[in-house]
Design brief:
Length: 330
């Protein structure tokens, strides 16, 4: 998490981060007016020199709190305006139309980088269900069978963007009972037979059991990305192919996007700029894997529409000729 103060400094903002003695605040001190609170309440926030510069005399808790909140809001607004102008200048996208960063980067990709000739499909129904069952996420368990001393630690950076440079499944999925795995690029269903521990100490292929992703040693049947099981075979896995969905190989689907954002990340002059570029790199891949959220379309009275708009997210709000409101919720 990036502290607002660092963000304001990074963007050379006019507004400065305020300071307030959080630990001093309680329901008993909210109306306090008197000498400024002791330094111990500020110790984690500002230096002793900064504390000494706070004027002595009538210190009004409510006024100080409101001023502090105002400076935060003004600072955040200034940052958003700077970012909004930057996104508009770079990608011709109005950032304020999007509620989340993944939604924003999807708009940036589709309007600035997407090659329609690649034909990325929106897949629904049973085919989507089969493919989604192969989409499990990462394994986060640690294995402490061995203790290592005087070892080196290596950080593998930008693994999502690196994976995005590979061929991607595009075009129409074609169901197949082809029994030669090398002739399929897409998603396959079959029996996975893991190697014994002597051949591979830590298994590679996951499966979800009781909403938990695990790495089994016993054989199991599952849907899996064809290239993942092909790679696993090199480590001792066996696979009995039953069926699958074959796709076209899409070259350089994300390459231009990844290369430009990675360059921005590498050349960033501040931690803030670097983290924003990093989030933009990682968020796009995840956005393509999100489940479809089905919208609810309702026609309600103006009073009911007002209540709904205050409680739920909506992306359509139309006043009809009869006075009612059509609203789309998600």
């Amino acid at each position: 998490m990036i502290h607002l103060e660092k963000v304001l400094i990074s963007y050379n903002c006019i507004n400065e981060k305020g300071s307030f003695p959080y630990e001093f605040l309680s329901k008993n001190t909210l109306n306090y007016i008197g000498e400024k609170p002791l330094f111990k309440y500020y110790a984690k926030i500002i230096s002793k020199t900064e504390y000494d510069n706070i004027p002595c005399g009538a210190w009004n808790c409510q006024n100080e709190l409101l001023n502090y909140l105002k400076s935060d809001v003004n600072g955040l607004y200034e940052v958003m305006m700077i970012m909004s102008k930057s996104i508009l200048w770079k990608y011709n996208i109005n950032m304020t139309k999007y509620k989340t960063l993944p939604a924003l980067v999807m708009a940036i990709f589709t309007s600035n980088f997407y090659n329609e000739d690649l034909n990325i499909k929106v897949i629904k129904g049973g085919v989507e269900k089969d493919i989604r069952s192969a989409y499990l996420g990462g394994i986060v368990e640690t294995y402490n069978k061995n203790i290592v001393k005087n070892a080196s630690h290596y950080d593998m950076n930008s693994q999502y963007p690196f994976a995005m440079l590979n061929y991607m499944p595009v075009g129409n999925p074609v169901f197949t009972t082809e029994n030669n795995l090398n002739n399929i690029f897409g998603f396959v269903y079959g029996e996975v037979i893991p190697p014994c521990e002597d051949k591979l100490r830590i298994p590679l292929i996951p499966i979800k059991i009781n909403n938990r992703v695990v790495l089994p040693r016993k054989p199991f049947k599952t849907w899996i990305f064809s290239e993942l099981i092909k790679d696993a075979i090199n480590y001792g896995y066996e696979f009995n192919l039953i069926c699958g969905y074959n796709f076209d190989r899409g070259p350089e689907v994300f390459n231009n996007y990844v290369n430009i954002l990675y360059k921005e990340k590498s050349e960033a002059k501040s931690t803030v700029e670097r983290n924003i570029a990093k989030l933009m790199l990682n968020s796009l891949y995840g956005k393509f894997g999100m489940k479809d959220i089905y919208n609810n379309l309702k026609i309600v009275s103006p009073t009911e529409a007002d209540k709904i708009s205050k409680k739920y997210n909506y992306n359509l709000f139309v006043k009809l000729s009869n006075g009612n409101i059509m609203i789309k919720l998600f």
